[in-house]
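Protocol step 4 of 6: structure prediction from sequence.
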Amino acid sequence: MFLVVYAISFPIDEELRSNLSILGTILYMLTFAIGAGPVTGVIIPELSSSRTRGKIMSFSFSVHWVCNFLVGLFFLELTEKFGVAPVYGSFGAVSILAALFSYSFLVETKGRSLEEIELSLNSNFAKRD
């Protein structure tokens, strides 16, 4: 994302600018697809109880697609009003904030069953037994 911002913002050769923009967009798509893209479908079911998993998944995916729709709907208006570099810069900043939030607040689930994760997240669940 920041490669695209650099290519657009700084005075460099026009051909290099075009190539950096394309390369930055492709790299963003690739890293998103193997990184943050599938997070919604992986993290949400792991951190929700088995009783409410379906409702939580449907709600989270609905919010996800509404946000995607809004970004697509307002992208051109935002780039006309603020310019391409600030819009892409804000996308990059949101990605960094999401990574910091994930690092700070998500629990490690590697090697744990869904039941173990549910017990560790919900102390009331263990007291009912």
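Step 5 (inspection) to follow. Residues 53-82 form the longest helix (30 residues).
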